[in-house]
Automatic annotation (TrEMBL):
<dbReference type="InterPro" id="IPR025878">
    <property type="entry name" value="Acyl-CoA_dh-like_C_dom"/>
</dbReference>
<feature type="domain" description="Acyl-CoA dehydrogenase/oxidase N-terminal">
    <location>
        <begin position="43"/>
        <end position="157"/>
    </location>
</feature>
<dbReference type="Pfam" id="PF02771">
    <property type="entry name" value="Acyl-CoA_dh_N"/>
</dbReference>
<dbReference type="InterPro" id="IPR046373">
    <property type="entry name" value="Acyl-CoA_Oxase/DH_mid-dom_sf"/>
</dbReference>
<dbReference type="InterPro" id="IPR037069">
    <property type="entry name" value="AcylCoA_DH/ox_N_sf"/>
</dbReference>
<dbReference type="InterPro" id="IPR006091">
    <property type="entry name" value="Acyl-CoA_Oxase/DH_mid-dom"/>
</dbReference>
<dbReference type="InterPro" id="IPR052166">
    <property type="entry name" value="Diverse_Acyl-CoA_DH"/>
</dbReference>
<feature type="domain" description="Acyl-CoA oxidase/dehydrogenase middle">
    <location>
        <begin position="163"/>
        <end position="271"/>
    </location>
</feature>
<dbReference type="InterPro" id="IPR009075">
    <property type="entry name" value="AcylCo_DH/oxidase_C"/>
</dbReference>
<dbReference type="Pfam" id="PF12806">
    <property type="entry name" value="Acyl-CoA_dh_C"/>
</dbReference>
<keyword id="KW-0285">Flavoprotein</keyword>
<protein>
    <submittedName>
        <fullName>Acyl-CoA dehydrogenase C-terminal domain-containing protein</fullName>
    </submittedName>
</protein>
<dbReference type="Pfam" id="PF02770">
    <property type="entry name" value="Acyl-CoA_dh_M"/>
</dbReference>
<dbReference type="InterPro" id="IPR036250">
    <property type="entry name" value="AcylCo_DH-like_C"/>
</dbReference>
<comment type="similarity">
    <text>Belongs to the acyl-CoA dehydrogenase family.</text>
</comment>
<dbReference type="Pfam" id="PF00441">
    <property type="entry name" value="Acyl-CoA_dh_1"/>
</dbReference>
<dbReference type="InterPro" id="IPR013786">
    <property type="entry name" value="AcylCoA_DH/ox_N"/>
</dbReference>
Length: 603
């Protein structure tokens, strides 16, 4: 069975040393409760729960899957008990506001915990994970009565939440949805339609499930401007707020999937199910985006967690597995062969995983600070800046970390060789589970269009400039530091090039809008690599400063520098290929007609 140790030392490095989380928390209203001792205790207990409770259920849950009987879904053995422990420990309300029954701690702390959950049992983590997004949507857009009825239950964890968007005939293009909401005489709505791919849509972990459903009113305008949002509970709350009469919502079937077998991915049928409008009529998509953006960050963390899990297990195997001798001569002459970690190509695969895990962690925790400031910041200018950066980085977190996460889990299998292809080692499960992260909550292509089209070009580059200015200021401040030159000089050049590439795409797009779609995925990946380069440069600066001070952790800081150096020399050059693809434009993509694509195999 795979093992896992939460990377607490690296978390402390990023949070306490590099990003100065103690000072960050002290400036947030209520953040004074998140003292270093409290944060450390929470992370350590979260690490214990993830390793001792969730990890042992990961492989068994994958093999067993979920069972649908008589419209009721049973999660794999042990999942319900683990969820009960999770609720008893107060984890669902960790970062929720005290007025709704939460502990009022910063959202960023919950995101650090989420990495551990995703690394040990992604399928299980999706049950409580979606509830956070549902709670956010109701907190921002629900009525006071809806908050009292549903939000408090979601925060305490006795009820879970879902988001119901996709339908059999439409995925990303939600303007095509057919689910209808018909007003009733008492101010509620009858919801009728079918939703597919609904994670945690039906299960036995909690006493009630709160579905947030997109549907159209009878007078809805065509397209996405006619979508409304409704809260539709599995059981209608009674007068005391407890689950009462069964609503007209059922699980029609379970999807047969490539991975995440322990999570119930459902086809949900709404048959005149009683629902209640959330927000204004026809404004449901804007309300749902609150939940979707939270989910997108969450999916990026899934990519990070799987990367870390893959790296740890590949590293342990590479240290133990004996095969061949090192090219430069035996490294373990007392053994019949050397451990494979001595071979350069194995080190390449391990370091790729290590760099993406550590870089991804920095990106998530940097972005998490922006979320804290947007939610609880008191300085208006700082809050506005954080909101701009959060909008820019959300598609990068979601798409870049899941793309490299899938790469990392594949490299993990490769380190194991043939054993990686065998179920008992658990590595192939990581690959299967990682594959969905590039798809749900918006594919990589959709995230790329959001980044380049909506966030960057629609703001005429102003959104991007907020971030590139920060990178520029960092490079200017360190340009005289000879010890950091290997990081700062290439970063400064890439930062300038980022703006030039953006301007080039923008100019082409003025003549042909297809240029945006042609460049978008390469642009997102380029953006991700440069973003991680900035964060690794900051990490290198911190590591250099720590080494200069001395102490007994020199090996940790030297390893941080070595990882940053590997990233710059072996991974960052990928930006060259992305740049060339961006500059190639749309012509070669669009030259072949749709009709001619099949030439060569059609009769």
């Amino acid at each position: 069975m795979p093992d896992y140790q939460a990377p607490l030392r690296d978390l402390r490095f990023v949070m306490d040393e590099m990003l100065d989380y103690p000072a960050h928390y002290s400036r947030l209203p209520g953040g004074e409760e998140a003292t270093p001792d409290v944060v450390s205790a929470i992370l350590e207990e979260g690490a214990r729960f993830a390793r001792e409770v969730l990890l042992p259920l990961n492989q068994s849950g994958d093999r067993e899957g979920c069972l649908l009987e008589g419209g009721e879904v049973k999660a794999p053995k042990g999942f319900k008990q683990a969820y009960a422990q999770y609720v008893e420990g107060g984890w669902p309300g960790l970062a929720a506001e005290a007025e709704h029954g939460g502990q009022g701690l910063p959202a960023s702390l919950g995101m650090a915990l989420n990495e551990m959950i995703c690394a040990t049992n992604l399928a299980w983590g999706m049950y409580p994970g979606l509830s956070h997004g549902a709670a956010d949507a109701l907190r921002h857009h629900g009525t006071e009565a809806q908050k009292a009825t549903y939000l408090t239950k979601l925060v305490e964890g006795t009820w879970t939440g879902t988001m119901c968007l996709t339908e059999p005939h439409c995925g990303t293009d939600l303007g095509l949805i057919k689910t209808r909401a018909v007003p009733t005489d008492d101010g509620a709505f009858d919801i009728t339609g079918t939703k597919i791919f609904i994670s945690a849509g039906e299960h036995d972990l909690a006493e009630n499930i709160v579905h947030l459903v997109l549907a159209k009113l009878p007078d809805a305008p065509a397209g996405s401007k006619g979508i409304s949002l409704f809260v539709v509970p599995k059981f209608l709350p009674d007068g005391d707020g407890n689950p009462g009469e069964r609503n007209g919502v059922t699980c029609g079937s379970l999807e047969h999937k490539m991975g995440i077998h322990g999570n119930a991915t459902c086809v949900m049928n709404f048959d005149a199910a009683r629902g209640y409008l959330v927000g204004a009529p026809h404004k449901g998509l804007a309300c749902m985006f609150t939940m979707m953006n939270a989910a997108r960050i969450g999916v990026g963390i899934q990519g990070l967690g799987l990367t870390e899990a893959s790296f740890q297990n590949a590293l342990a195997y590479a240290r133990d597995r004996l095969q061949m001798r090192a090219l430069a001569g035996a490294k373990a002459p007392e053994k019949p062969a050397d451990p494979i970690i001595v071979h350069p190509d194995v080190r390449r695969m391990l370091l790729t995983q290590k760099a993406f895990a550590e870089g991804g962690r920095m990106l998530v925790l940097y972005t998490a600070q922006m979320i804290d400031l947007v939610e609880h910041g008191v300085d208006a200018a700082e809050k506005e800046r954080a909101e701009t950066l959060l909008g820019l980085l959300t598609p990068v977190v979601k798409a870049f970390l899941t793309e490299v996460g899938f790469e990392a889990t594949n490299e993990g299998v490769q380190v194991f060789g043939g054993h990686g292809f065998i179920q008992e080692w658990g590595m192939e499960q990581l690959v299967r589970d990682a594959r969905i992260t590039r798809l749900y909550e918006g594919t990589t292509g959709i995230q790329a269009l959001d980044l380049l089209g909506r966030k960057v070009l629609m703001s005429q580059g102003e959104t991007l400039k907020v971030f590139t200015k920060e990178i520029h200021q960092f490079c200017r401040a360190e340009e005289g530091n000879a010890e950091l030159a290997e990081f700062v000089r290439p970063l400064a050049k890439l930062n300038q090039e980022w703006g030039e590439l953006t301007m080039g795409v923008g100019m082409k797009a003025m003549a042909d809008r297809e240029e945006v779609g042609a460049a978008s995925v390469d642009y997102l990946m380029y953006s991700g690599y440069v973003t991680l380069a900035y964060l690794f440069a900051r990490a290198a600066r911190q590591a250099r400063a720590a080494l200069a001070e001395g102490g007994d952790e020199a090996a940790f800081y030297r390893a941080k520098l070595d990882t940053a150096r590997f990233y710059y020399q072996r991974l960052l050059p990928r930006t060259r290929a992305h740049k060339l693809s961006i500059e190639a434009g749309a012509e070669s993509l669009m030259a072949i007609s749709a009709e001619d694509f099949g030439l060569g195999f059609e009769n």
